[in-house]
Amino acid sequence: EDFFASQTQLEKKKIVITAGPTYEKIDPVRFIGNYSSGKMGFALAEACVQQGAEVTLIAGPVSLKTVHPNIKRVDVESAEEMYQAAMAAFPKADAGILCAAVADYRPDVQAAEKIKRETKGEMTLRLVPNKDIAASLGAIKREGQVLVGFALETNDEAAHAEGKLKRKNLDFIVLNSLRDAGAGFRCDTNKITIIDKEGESVAYPLKSKQGVAVDIVNKLATLLK
Ligand code: CTP
Ligand code: CA
Questions:
Q1: Most exposed of 28, 49, 103, 137 (fewest Cβ within 10 Å)?
Q2: pLDDT, position 3
Q3: If you measure from the C-alpha of residue 151 to the centroid of ligand 2, how many angstroms do you get, rounded to a whole number?
Q4: Which residues fall in the annotated binding site?
């Protein structure tokens, strides 16, 4: 393929990407969050527009900037807000990439005022489950749409990833193992294995998140042809 052909793998394709953490409010000044930086999702957005795609990037609270005119950014805070934005955008899209580290639980009540220390004893937070955005998109996925998920695992990696692939009706899943040095949160590199719904598994070497994004986009392009 020539140079230009290699830059148009996703020409005119509409891609929805979730990225970053979610924050689940406890009270006006406190939240439950996680260490996701959003770097992988933002690198994916860049890699997609480099290939001619139009991206809707649904981002949790991150400190990253987006400049490309073909990246439409939707900033959200909680898992519920991310769910609403993703469900609204996915029906018009050709593909969805679920890269966000969505909180599985949120406090059952968000206190309207700052919670005071008052008593010196223990304090309990009751948590209730958030919606599964990936599974919800998987349930409304149409013929021809492609859905990509991520799995960050510490043990029984392949089995857990394959379970998520099936449960969420994904076309392929990008597995990171926390046992691999240089993979996961707060890192500029990543080491992935792509497992698709045909059961094919490809392990890639350690790369920059930009390099990993290109590998994921190449896999996506083969399914969007
Ligand atoms: N995901 C999502 N919405 C959620 C939870 C997860 O869209 N509420 C997506 C993630 O963005 C990722 C995939 O589902 O693409 C797998 O996320 P993960 O947290 O590994 O899976 P869970 O189903 O939450 O399972 P667990 O955390 O128990 O391993
Ligand atoms: Ca989870």
A1: 28
A2: 53
A3: 9
A4: 104, 114, 150, 164, 168
What are phi and psi for residue 6, nearest 5 degrees? Answer: -75, -10
Is residue 2 over pLDDT 70?
no
Nearest-atom index, ligand 1, CA of 152: 20
Atom of ligand 1 nearest to the CA of 149: 15
Does residue 183 surpass a pLDDT of 50?
Answer: yes
Strand partners, 19: 59
Residues marked as catalytic = 34
Is 5-102+128-224 a CATH 3.40.50.10300 domain?
yes
End-to-end CA distance of the chain: 15
Q: Is 35 buried (19+), middle (13-18) or exposed (0-12) by CB count in 10 A?
A: exposed
Beta bridge partners of 204: none
Spatial distance between the Cα atoms of 113 and 131, rounded to a whole number of angstroms: 26
Residue 135 Cα to ligand 1 midpoint, Å, equals 9
pLDDT value at residue 97: 98
Q: How would you label 73-83 residue by residue, b for 16+ Cβ within 10 Å and e otherwise?
A: bbebbbbbbbb
Lowest mean pLDDT among 74-83, 161-170, 173-182: 173-182
